[in-house]
């Protein structure tokens, strides 16, 4: 960004176009504190105390010490904060009350960039354009040209084809990431742009560039509203309006370049070379002394008392009051239905494409999965190489091999718990901003995982191990065996998906997924004879993937063997009859149906859990 660009004058004359004016009236926001080990409801904590204000076209900075409520105010007015905590208050844009669907028409850039690391800057922007611009009104060429314009406007042309970056890929710089996050939101050409601490984590130069960029946008028809921590002077001088917060109250709201004058009237004098932004925070934190005796009425902070008495506050209140009187009723918060601009199938196409790109560009997990598949297939094939049909080793080795196979196929799916956890913040951000439906995300993620990571590797695994073990040579038996292996794997991975959609920490998920697998193993009928022991827990066998997987393998292997051989392995058969295996054709399909049933229930629960994830901040 050139110096010329950075030294833009702050003033009316610089506006090419004016953005909207946002007013908020009597906003009271509370949170319910939880106390004790049982997380009982504690006292309500008021984090925004009946505050009102006007945010005008241009650069609106919300400043204050940590915990003063900057982000909460930003979230409430942008419709991002959980409506359950809003006691009362109304937000108006250009004099008209808005509901929390403002989140779908405005842009909100969160503090932690939520971008898909495996995609390039251009691909991320195109993803946003594809899902957020109505295909009826915007052709592909249109979307492309909008993306190119934004790349140009944000100075991202040079890194347009560079990936954002992941743990494995070194990507763009912090400033470029932030600009890309802003670009994702600018795609819909919103007139209101909210940013939560846009300079946090950036070096001074990059922070300055980001603020200059926002300043430029604010001169072209966008009202930019952001929370910020201790900006340096070159950043501060680009603010038009300043809102200073202290413990959920507004202690100053007005022109940024008039704030020094205001505080000097209250007896606070800035020292030479001090940064005004630091000075204001010192005043709020009580570290700067006033030369005047400021009264604290009713125990209220003297700064708050003085601000409420000030002419600018009185005038603002009057303006807000006038607008409020024109409209009755508060901010509606519930019942809004999100209208997506794209259809279910269109979203499915775009998300599946991204999921496949993701998979191809982070092949490490898939490589590991494939390497383990081949390794274990060879291992089991070598250990149980050409199992004889004589007793007792025929029985013993087949039982051992099937148990080993099912253990391997179930536990190799432990890694799937990261599916919904790794991208959770990206999903929450995109879904809350109306990019796509939850069902589309769910199906695209499941589809992109099941086929390449579960189904195809299982077919390979079965092909290698089956013939090495010398099981029944009939091709149909091989197909039945492969089907059993695949459905067992899908059953196990569905349990992992259910856990993944339920918790947000990987450590917790790993614990929670191992537990049902171990229980299923114990009650699978192989380790414990449930007729004699633990009969009161025997019902658990009905939800054991191990039981159904192993039973189906036994049935496939044992039925249709030549009569003479069957004789020899009669005790083998008897043992399994004791475990309740039904060797009929329906007996085989019963197990497959049970595996499909377990998978379906787990996937439905996973989907419900994904829908229940809180989108609010
Ligand atoms: N969802 C929530 N649950 C519990 N406490 C909350 C929640 N949201 C806000 N708070 C509390 O409200 C107060 C204000 O929080 P907020 O994040 O708005 O402050 P902030 O000024 O943006 O702070 P920081 O600069 O540290 O981000 C804090 O004490 C915070 O702990």
UniProtKB/TrEMBL annotation:
Molecular function terms, GO-annotated: ABC-type transporter activity; ATP binding; ATP hydrolysis activity; efflux transmembrane transporter activity; organic anion transmembrane transporter activity
One Pfam assignment: ABC2_membrane_7
Keywords, ordered alphabetically: ATP-binding, Membrane, Nucleotide-binding, Transmembrane, Transmembrane helix, Transport
Any one Gene Ontology cellular component term annotated for this protein: apical plasma membrane
Membrane topology per record: Multi-pass membrane protein
Subcellular compartments: Membrane
Coiled-coil intervals: none
SMART domains tied to this protein: AAA
Membrane-spanning residues: 367-387, 399-421, 475-499, 511-530, 593-610
Residue ranges constituting the ABC transporter domain according to the UniProt record: 22-272
Domain of life per record: Eukaryota
Family in the record: Belongs to the ABC transporter superfamily. ABCG family. Eye pigment precursor importer (TC 3.A.1.204) subfamily.
Protein name, entry field: ABC transporter domain-containing protein
Biological classification of the source: Eukaryota, Metazoa, Chordata, Craniata, Vertebrata
């Amino acid at each position: 960004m050139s110096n010329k660009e950075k030294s833009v004058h702050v003033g009316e004359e610089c506006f090419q176009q004016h953005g909207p004016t946002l007013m908020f009236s009597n906003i009271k926001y509370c949170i319910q504190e939880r106390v004790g080990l049982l997380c009982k409801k504690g006292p309500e904590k008021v984090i925004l105390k009946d505050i009102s204000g006007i945010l005008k076209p241009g650069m609106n900075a919300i400043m204050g010490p940590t915990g003063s409520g900057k982000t909460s105010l930003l979230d409430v007015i942008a419709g991002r904060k959980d409506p359950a905590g809003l006691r009362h208050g109304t937000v108006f844009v250009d004099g008209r009350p808005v509901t929390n669907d403002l989140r779908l028409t405005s842009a909100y850039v969160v503090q932690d960039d939520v971008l898909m690391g495996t995609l390039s800057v251009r691909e991320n922007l195109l993803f946003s354009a594809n899902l957020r611009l109505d295909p009826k009104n915007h052709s592909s060429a249109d979307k492309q040209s909008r993306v190119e314009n934004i790349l140009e406007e944000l100075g991202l042309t040079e890194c347009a084809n560079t990936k954002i970056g992941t743990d494995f890929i070194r990507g763009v710089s912090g400033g470029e990431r932030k600009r890309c996050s802003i670009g994702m939101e600018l795609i819909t050409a919103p007139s209101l742009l909210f940013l939560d601490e846009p300079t946090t984590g950036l070096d001074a130069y990059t922070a300055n560039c980001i603020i200059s960029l926002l300043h430029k946008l604010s001169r072209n028809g966008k009202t930019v509203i952001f929370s910020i921590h201790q900006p340096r002077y070159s950043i501060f001088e680009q603010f038009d309006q300043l809102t200073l917060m202290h413990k959920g109250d507004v202690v100053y709201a007005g022109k940024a370049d008039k704030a020094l004058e205001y505080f000097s009237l209250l007896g606070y004098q800035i020292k030479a070379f001090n940064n005004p932004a630091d000075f204001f925070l010192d005043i709020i934190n009580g570290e700067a002394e006033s030369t005047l005796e400021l009264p604290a009425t009713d125990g209220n902070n003297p700064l708050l008392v003085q601000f409420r008495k000030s002419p600018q506050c009185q005038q603002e209140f009057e303006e807000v009051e006038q607008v409020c009187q024109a409209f009755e009723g508060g901010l509606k918060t519930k019942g809004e239905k999100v209208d997506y601009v794209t259809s279910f199938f269109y979203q499915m196409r775009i998300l599946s494409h991204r999921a496949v790109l993701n998979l191809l560009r982070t092949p490490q997990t898939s490589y590991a999965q494939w390497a383990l598949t081949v390794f274990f297939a060879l291992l089991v094939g070598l250990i149980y190489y050409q199992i004889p049909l004589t007793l007792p080793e025929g029985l013993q080795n087949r039982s051992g091999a099937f148990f080993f196979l099912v253990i391997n196929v179930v536990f190799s799916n432990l890694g799937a718990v990261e599916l919904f956890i790794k991208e959770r913040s990206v999903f929450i951000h995109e879904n809350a901003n109306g990019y796509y439906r939850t069902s589309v995300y769910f199906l695209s993620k499941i589809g992109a995982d099941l086929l390449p990571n579960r189904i195809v590797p299982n077919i390979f695994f079965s092909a290698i191990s089956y013939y090495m073990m010398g099981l029944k040579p009939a091709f149909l038996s091989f197909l039945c065996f492969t089907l059993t292996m695949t459905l067992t794997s899908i059953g196990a991975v569905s349990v992992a998906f259910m856990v993944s959609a339920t918790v947000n920490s990987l450590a917790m998920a790993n614990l929670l997924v191992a537990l049902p697998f171990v229980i299923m193993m114990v009650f699978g009928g192989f380790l414990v004879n449930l007729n004699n022991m633990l009969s009161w827990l025997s019902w658990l066998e009905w939800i054991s993937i191990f039981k159904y997987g192993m039973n189906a393998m036994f049935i496939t292997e044992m039925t249709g063997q030549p009569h003479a051989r069957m004789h020899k392995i009669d005790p083998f058969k008897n043992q399994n009859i004791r475990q309740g295996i039904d060797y009929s054709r329906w007996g085989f399909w019963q197990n497959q149906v049970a595996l499909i049933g377990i998978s379906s229930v787990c996937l439905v629960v996973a989907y419900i859990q994904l829908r229940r994830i809180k989108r609010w901040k």
